[in-house]
Design a protein that fits this description.
heterodimer, A: Fumarate Reductase Iron-sulfur Protein, Chain B, domain 2, FAD/NAD(P)-binding domain, five-stranded parallel beta sheet, 17 helices, globular, B: about 425 residues, TIM Barrel, Alpha-Beta Plaits, 2 domains, four-stranded antiparallel beta sheet, Helical_ferredxn (chain A), EC 1.3.1.1 (chain A)
Chain lengths: ~450, ~425
């Protein structure tokens, strides 16, 4: 171990070529027609089904499952898309164990085994190959709307607005649309370029223009968007990685989780990615798990996930945690980073202080320390809203560090709406963002049509 | 341990499970395998006069549940398409090799006394234990004036039965078709003709499915289809009813019955026997699972008999018949209402949907503070129809509970609102 402190082991191509293919193939492959049929027949077609309420987008789950059972897969797909135009990516990334499947009545005695709703949703949408786009646009309203951010919230919002007859322009700072689905989800959860296929499907409706590499606060100003368009929807997400408080300039080895996941997702050749051998991940959300498992699957020898509280407090779901354990990720709880050991600007180890809860349940340090050798530390302790995107413009009001909105998803600015992770409402989940986009679109539509009607009168 | 030894109209077999006249009993090869597996007897697939019939391809089709399980099968096969001489020789040898098993021969020949007489003489020479007259086959043979065409005319049933009784000493079982209005009429005809027993049911006219692409039904024979004979567990309720109606009828109640129709488990067999069958014949279950299913049938039946203290089949034969009656005799003061076991309720709400939309609005749903849903029965509204219990997916979660009543038993026959009541 002492050797590693002197010799950081950063390299690429740690595995034989075929291992990469195996390690990053679909972790939850689609059900076959036969499996889907058998599984669909397990659905009890509940009255006022709890799974519907547990889905942020309110998909009529028993209805689409019954359609699969009836071998009406196209009907099933459109039932899903009617509520959630990003149903395909949600089927892949939703923590179904805490949403629809978590409340399935088949979780109860005597079965303890929910219907595989997520996998059935994926089956329906993967099987769906319509000759033409299932949705048509309403007659043109002549109104224009700017959507900032081509992530799930922005895409859902844009799609709904276009269906309602408005002309939409989506701006995104990245080179591709898709947001988190394209840049922030583990590779093996979103294989075969699915995020882009879904974007293509959404754009195929028409009426939506996509402008990439347009960052708010840089190439774009909120003030000018507000002048140029009848309404603006902000779906800008959380782009600022929270700091550990140990950052020093020019250290090799202290890495941002988002950059790493993005690099993985955009890579054509995973063997070319430089990866450490002794990796420590700080945090215990789904992003932390994604990084830890992907590092392991890239060939890192030791991957340790360190979390300041206990397993029961982890933001990652128990299913994700189980997946980390299956990937031989070592998990250390009740410890927080206290200092970094750096030699010649290269990280070699990280020191932790053990933590505990005091009598008032506050997290405290115990002044007991330990060290882990580490050539790479990924911080995955969450992201925050980057409010300098409003630099030079009148900003909307914020609350708890995110954009404040009312029940209609309106910000404090008269023609600006917001949704997704950049607002504080619900969970930070893809499916939640889709619902925000949907609802904001309805609100924008109502507002524009209402104000137009009012004006004419 | 209970004995399954069976004696049906003088024919003994080690258990009451015979294989019905059908493809599984069409040749010695199958029959030997069946006997090795433990079947008590066989009814050899129907023999007819030369020349033997020609069958079509394809021949079977299925009715499946939504989850893919076979509920029923239909077939358009004719009687044995093997030569009469080969069949007779095999039957003779089979009886020599398996003397303790029942071998019955099913017969179907044209409606002429000479034809029956000739056939009976040939069959008797095989040493078989009895004959079964196939008056039921609903496809192909009726077009030639045989099978169901005969079974649907009581006078023909009686006449041919009488011919057979005249020309052979073998016990005669008359196999009845369900494709009639009243099974008792057919059973009476058989009895009048001197039948030793009836067996029922034969298959039911059916179309199992239409291929919505080709618009042809199944089994598909070169793009065309025809009605086939339906069998398998789907027909069990119809068969049980017909057996029960013969058993409870004063004139036919003493007629021995070989029960047939969708017997797939030991429980089905026990039900047929409790409604008066002296033994049972099985086909579809064997066709779907193979002859090994006999192990499950005999083991289950014997264990159940042990649990009830029945030592022989006779001990519970017909035990359900006295309780089978006409609607007008049912007690109008008997009342059950549903009760939901809250500990096993999984809150799916199926009972609520069924009762609220299609029955008596007798189930109440409340949202509890912990987010759970509480389904309960509104006792005053519940008529005891059983629908909630039927739709509930959890075993024993909903039970129908008998309500105390101070009123004496009163049937429609006795009810003051019945203008034709018998005790006016």
């Amino acid at each position: 171990m002492s050797d590693s402190k002197k010799d950081p082991d950063m390299s690429s191509h740690r595995l034989p070529n075929d291992e990469y293919l195996k390690n990053f193939s679909d972790i939850k492959p689609p059900l076959s027609q036969y499996e889907a049929h058998i599984e669909a027949n397990r659905c009890l077609y509940c009255e006022d089904a709890p799974c519907i309420s547990a889905c942020p987008t309110g998909i009529n789950i028993p209805s689409f499952i019954q359609k699969i059972a009836d071998k009406n897969t196209d009907g099933a797909a459109t039932t899903i898309l009617d509520s959630n135009i990003l149903g395909g990516s949600c089927a892949r990334v939703c923590p179904t164990e805490i949403l629809c499947e978590g409340v399935c009545v088949r979780n109860k005695s005597p079965e303890f085994s929910p219907v595989k709703i997520g996998r059935l949703q994926r089956f329906a949408l993967d099987t769906y190959q319509p000759d033409q786009h299932p949705y048509q646009r309403s007659p043109a309203t002549g109104r224009t709307i700017a959507v900032v951010g081509a992530g799930p919230a922005g895409l859902a919002c844009a799609h709904k607005l276009s269906r309602l007859g408005h002309n939409v322009t989506i701006f995104d700072k990245q080179a591709k649309a898709g947001g988190l689905n394209e840049y922030g989800i583990a590779q093996y959860k979103m294989v075969d370029n699915f995020a882009q296929k879904e974007v293509d499907f959404i754009m195929a409706l028409g009426g939506i223009q996509l402008k990439t590499q347009q960052a708010l606060g840089e190439q774009l100003q909120l003030d000018s968007l507000r002048n140029e368009f009848d309404a603006v929807f902000l779906g800008v997400g959380l782009s600022n990685s929270k700091a550990l408080g140990l950052e020093q300039t020019d250290i090799h080895g202290l890495e941002s989780s988002l950059d790493f996941i993005s690099e993985l997702r955009q890579s054509d050749d995973l063997s070319q990615i430089t990866i450490g051998n002794k990796i420590v991940v700080i945090g215990a959300g789904n992003t932390a798990i994604d990084i830890a498992c992907q590092s392991k699957r890239l060939g890192a020898e030791q991957v340790t996930l360190v979390y300041r509280r206990g397993e029961s407090h982890m933001p990652a779901t128990s299913k994700e945690l189980e997946f980390a354990k299956q990937n031989s990720v070592k998990i250390i709880t009740w410890a927080r980073p206290s200092s970094l050991k750096v030699i010649n600007n290269q990280l070699v180890a990280i020191q932790f202080e053990k933590t505990a809860l005091d009598t008032s349940n506050n997290l405290i340090g115990t002044e007991s320390f330990f060290e882990l050798p580490a050539d790479t530390v990924y911080k995955a302790i969450g992201q925050s809203f980057l409010f300098n995107c409003f630099a030079g413009s009148e900003p909307p009001e914020l609350i708890n560090g995110r954009i404040d909105i009312n029940e209609q998803f309106q910000t404090s600015l008269n023609n600006v709406w917001a949704g997704g992770d950049c607002v504080v409402l619900g969970e930070d989940l893809t499916v939640q963002a889709v619902e925000h986009g949907k609802q904001a679109a309805d609100s924008i539509h109502h507002h524009l049509i209402w104000s137009k009607g009012n004006g004419d009168a | 341990m209970a004995t399954l030894k069976s004696k049906f109209i003088g024919i003994t077999s080690p258990n009451p499970f015979w294989l019905a006249s059908a493809p599984p009993t069409d040749k010695a090869y199958n029959v030997y395998r069946a006997f090795e597996a433990g079947w008590g007897g066989v009814v050899w697939k129907t023999l007819g006069e030369a020349p033997e019939p020609i069958n079509v391809s394809s021949r079977y089709s299925a009715h499946k549940s939504q989850s893919g399980e076979v509920i029923g099968i239909n077939n358009i096969e004719l009687i044995s398409d093997r030569s009469l001489e080969v069949n007779l020789a095999e039957i003779r040898q089979t009886k020599i090799d398996w003397p303790d098993r029942a071998v019955i021969v099913s017969l179907m020949v044209p409606c002429e006394e000479a034809s029956w007489k000739a056939m009976l003489n040939k069959v008797a020479a095989t040493g078989c234990d009895g004959i079964e007259l196939n008056f039921g086959c609903p496809h192909g043979m009726p077009e030639r004036g045989m099978g169901a065409a005969v079974g649907q005319v009581p006078e023909y049933v009686e006449m041919i039965t009488a011919w057979c009784k005249k020309h052979t000493k073998l016990p005669v079982i008359v196999k009845l078709t369900p494709n009639i209005t009243n099974i008792v009429t057919s059973a009476m005809a058989a009895k009048k003709g001197g039948a030793d027993a009836v067996s029922l049911i034969n298959t039911i006219n059916s179309i199992t499915q239409i291929d919505l692409d080709s618009m042809a039904g199944a089994p598909n024979v070169g793009g065309q289809f025809t009605s086939g004979g339906y069998c398998g567990s789907a027909v069990k309720p119809i068969a049980l009813n017909m057996v029960g109606q013969i058993s409870r009828n004063n004139e036919t109640g003493s007629l021995p019955i070989s029960g047939i129709g969708g017997i797939s488990t030991w429980r089905d067999a026990a039900e047929f026997i409790s409604l008066g069958a002296g033994n049972v014949q099985v086909c579809t279950a064997a066709m779907l699972h193979g002859f090994k299913i006999i192990t499950e049938l005999t083991d289950g039946l014997a264990r159940w008999m042990d649990s009830k203290g029945y030592q022989t089949i006779e001990d519970f034969k017909g035990a359900a018949v006295p309780q089978l009656t006409d609607w007008k005799h049912l007690d109008l003061n008997y009342q059950v209402i549903a009760e939901i076991n809250q500990d096993s309720c999984i809150e799916c709400g199926r009972c609520y949907a069924a009762c609220e939309d299609t029955a008596h609005q007798a189930i109440k749903v409340e949202k509890l503070e912990n987010g759970q849903r509480h389904f309960s029965v509104i006792n005053n509204e519940c008529v005891g129809c059983n629908l909630c219990q039927i739709t509930c997916p959890v075993p024993d979660c909903i039970t129908m509970v008998k309500q105390p009543t101070s009123k004496p038993k009163q049937s429609w026959d006795q009810h003051p609102k019945n203008p034709f009541r018998s005790n006016k």
